[in-house]
TrEMBL record:
This is DUF2000 domain-containing protein. InterPro entries: DUF2000 (IPR018988), Pep_tRNA_hydro_II_dom_sf (IPR023476), UCP033763 (IPR017021). The lineage of its organism: Bacteria, Bacillati, Actinomycetota, Actinomycetes, Kitasatosporales. Transmembrane segments: none annotated. It holds the Pfam family DUF2000. It comes from Streptomyces kunmingensis. It comes from the Bacteria. Coiled coil: none annotated.
Length: 138
């Protein structure tokens, strides 16, 4: 697990079809939930005593950007020690197995990976610096 963060933003490639965009955010969310300590709050009980599984405890804006924006975020975030980044590529989205994804990715340089989504977690200022100019995904 990595350190507890204040904010996590998801950026989706702006030309993805809605279903692929949802799949991208879902895949990124799984990794963020696994590796970012404290992002999921404790379970809560309602007035009837029914327990509800914990949900996110920090802001999670969903933004959109061009493929070049995603690549820039990945490359800039990789050099920041207090930022956690997860990227998702068209290679991952189109692979039928994790082994296929691993093999296909191994043959591509970072700058040539077809990014379709990225999640960036860190301090509010760090996340805003990386993603602040991008619009909300609507």
């Amino acid at each position: 697990m990595v350190a507890k963060y204040e904010k996590c933003a998801f950026v989706v490639e702006q030309d993805l079809a809605a279903g692929l965009a949802m799949n991208t955010v879902a895949a990124l969310s799984m990794s963020v939930g696994r590796f970012v300590e404290g992002i999921v709050g404790d379970a809560v009980k309602d007035a009837d005593g029914l327990t509800h599984t914990g949900i996110t405890a920090i802001p999670l804006p969903i933004l959109k950007g061009a493929a070049a924006d995603l690549r820039d975020i990945v490359l800039k975030a990789a050099g920041l020690p207090d930022v956690f980044v997860v990227d998702f590529t068209a290679v991952a989205q189109s692979s039928r197995s994790y082994d296929e994804y691993t093999d296909r990715t191994a043959g591509l340089p970072t700058a040539e990976l077809p990014y379709v989504g990225v999640a960036v977690c860190g301090s509010k200022s760090a996340v805003n610096k990386l993603t602040g100019s991008l619009p909300l995904y609507r």
